[in-house]
């Protein structure tokens, strides 16, 4: 598998994973606040985890970079904070597999924004279902459930759009020019 | 990102039970229970698993101050906060048959709501505590080596991760400097969430640009040392899968199944 | 650098030995990077014999780094580029041999020490290469031990490399390259990011490599250290064509004037001799080291009427020393020597500044005044507190109230935005400071924030672009500028608000001397026009050339604060602070025949007083 990815691609993927992780880690401090103040908005926070894969795909447009980036980010995050090993690896595999899968379905040829946003929406649905059960959100009033579902899907989609914008900026800054 | 640890540090020599196990065994053992817990609704099942996880950790993990704080304070407090928080949001229609605990103006907290909330809190705590079995007794380097040697994760990925451990403090420091620099430039002053978002947005490109360039330099250094020359590489540190790993996983699975059958949390 | 002055006898004697087949053969090498139209280097030809140390010189952008990367095949295997010509390493064709094979023959050491650490302990790091080669465990361990012992790091084998100093990390990188078993070591500016003590460290290690009979190809801007070790020199011109190949005598000594005109850096002693020649001195043999310069001066007669030009104005007393009693050390060299500057109210006034970062105290009761129009250098070892000091002055980290006054304002009570109109701060890495998508907006940002009318913003921004030679780049993304241009832009952004004071933190870090010099010349111009300049740097020769006053920070205290020449008159003080004399000072301090040199520290003084 890794034969196809050069050392440079691997390390840049790791760097993207770590850098977004650090930005996201600060956002992650908000998690408990959100959970208490507005549990149905948790999808917005969780959605930020789509970023590494999206940025990596935007920078490289190569097979396997999304999954690799998520995996590397999870391994590094685990080293920095081993207690959450399960959460890191689980999210990484889930998000990475979905993003990679969508790209694979188009045989890594279509890189339009719609493709990324679609993967964002699917991530949103999957995450929504898992969190729904963990947090027993069926007990919330209907309006909160609907809000929750909408936000859970919109969260990753919005973060995906942000990731696309970041990729675009990196291109303009000449960082992602050479593949 | 709270703990600052040396991710390369060899595990302190310890004869404690969990430290001697393969990281993969410590991950695989609790996983079925964690998955099933997602779908439980009672309080007893997650409580039993919390108890089991704590027992394993107290007996088998090296007990440091940090571990003590996490197990004794952070986790219970977190469960309580999540539980109370959620009970505020429970649909009143579902629980208005239960006893009233508290009334503020037109709003009432029912016992049923509190029960549902606390059950969720304990469930989350149980899932986290089971994850800590591996988390508190494994170093990053061990995990990487075990994944490479037993899970057949390509070693190029593993060693990339090892090299990238160093990115964490480096990029965190860079981010700090970028924030200072932007402050001095007077970029996006102002308060409120929108100013904050605009500010953070400004940090992304400089941080990623610096990160990517640094990664490219590290890649050159690794390539010049024949990284990836062969399909395998010499491993000086062997992380074996021993009989006790198999036993640990088997015991975990059997115990999980036993608890779930005994308590069968899905009876209406 | 000064210690090396006495250990160079062996390197200077021409080595007579029968010519074995070359270890490395490069013929007509041209490399065109993807996306570029011209090849740099355009045509390089030279050879490296076993056991030889070859130094590659060339102006910035001539393709030296590119050359280094082609030698082990990273270009074009890992970095896309078109390579023509021939490279043969140990008889292997670099174009067709995989990097992994070439890596056994060519060991690489790069510029950035931090970018070459991979694993968690020194031993694992050195073993990393041999493990990749699938060598048996015993062999890996044997090689690792040998390499670590050779660079003197075996005792620290179980430590995390993060804990090494910059020089220590580079020695580790050398050990890692040695463990690959290569007979040729290629180093691309291995000391560019190091402080003076670190540079000494690296060259000590390289000497043992040479003693071991291996060959070295060295790309280096800091010739004062390199020349001691070099057997042969290869010189490239701006396009990357070989213009000279030969022994140190034939190239560096005999063609020094020509190389200087090419924009290639020479040893400071050689540059000094060239200046003196122009002023009428004559030397039998071009000196390359401080020791040789000293001897040459002892042997030469001064031209009639020659006197050093006093280009760095300095007042009165010279025989000062910074370490007489720990207590008043900070005040023994007080700025009393600048009566004309301190009579005016100081623009920077620091009193009783004690600062903590985290829980660590990093500055202890610091006091200092800077008058309007001064040019002050702040020097000191790593971790001494230089950055903390200038950041507290500029308000980047808030100082305690009432301890700092900048242009009459207390940074602790002033909003940063207002403060930036009084003092501009330039961070080490210019990219960190950029906040806009075009060069124009980058500069205009500081003006727009103040609500100036659009056409005035436009006019002032264009004027600044013009002044810094960036007019053609107004619409370019700041990240796409060259290193030197980025640096100028970051200075421009700090200045455009009209700040009369400029503080720069290690503005020359990681830049070659040409860019460093360009920047400091710019600062001198600004200073001449009235801007007060405060620079933190590790480059002692640059300090000597440009700063009138030097502040030495040691362990959170000001250890010395005096005219630059006076600070450099006290070598014991500098050494105690992990600093070194500037090479020129080291050369001239022992000259007995011409006492006038006793106070000279800057090359510009050597041109001779204007007649
Ligand atoms: N990866 C790359 N892609 C495209 N162009 C490059 C790349 N690396 C270098 N160049 C270009 O090749 C030329 C030679 O650069 P190189 O870094 O080899 O010069 P150098 O002699 O090492 O300069 P310096 O003394 O500043 O280090 C420059 O014009 C540079 O812009
Ligand atoms: N953010 C921080 N938190 C805690 N300690 C710090 C922080 N920044 C610096 N220090 C410590 O303060 C001391 C002074 O650091 P400072 O960066 O001012 O030194 P410096 O003289 O600029 O060193 P260098 O030459 O390495 O840049 C050091 O010991 C450093 O470890
Ligand atoms: Mg170079
Ligand atoms: Mg500093």
From TrEMBL, chain A:
InterPro entries: ABC_thiamin-permease_prd. The chain crosses the membrane at residues 9-30, 36-55, 62-79, 85-106, 113-134, 146-167. Keywords: Membrane, Transmembrane, Transmembrane helix. It comes from the Bacteria. The keyword RNA-binding does not apply. The keyword Transmembrane applies. This is ECF transporter S component.
From TrEMBL, chain B:
InterPro entries: ABC/ECF_trnsptr_transmembrane. Keywords: Membrane, Transmembrane, Transmembrane helix. Its main location: membrane. Pfam families: CbiQ. The chain crosses the membrane at residues 43-61, 68-90, 110-136, 246-266. It is found in: Membrane. It is a multi-pass membrane protein. PANTHER family: PROTEIN ABCI12, CHLOROPLASTIC. This is Energy-coupling factor transporter transmembrane component T. It comes from Microbacterium dauci.
UniProtKB/TrEMBL annotation, chain C:
Keywords: ATP-binding, Nucleotide-binding, Transport. InterPro entries: AAA+_ATPase, ABC_transporter-like_ATP-bd, ABC_transporter-like_CS, ABC_transpr_CbiO/EcfA_su, ECF_ABC_transporter_ATP-bd, P-loop_NTPase. The keyword Nucleotide-binding applies. It comes from the Bacteria. Transmembrane segments: none annotated. GO terms for molecular function: ATP binding. Residues 24-264, 348-580 form the ABC transporter domain. Residues 1-22 are annotated as: Disordered. It holds the Pfam family ABC_tran. Residues 1-12 have a biased composition (Low complexity). PANTHER family: ENERGY-COUPLING FACTOR TRANSPORTER ATP-BINDING PROTEIN ECFA1, HEAVY METAL TRANSPORTER. Belongs to the ABC transporter superfamily. This is ABC transporter ATP-binding protein. The lineage of its organism: Bacteria, Bacillati, Actinomycetota, Actinomycetes, Micrococcales.
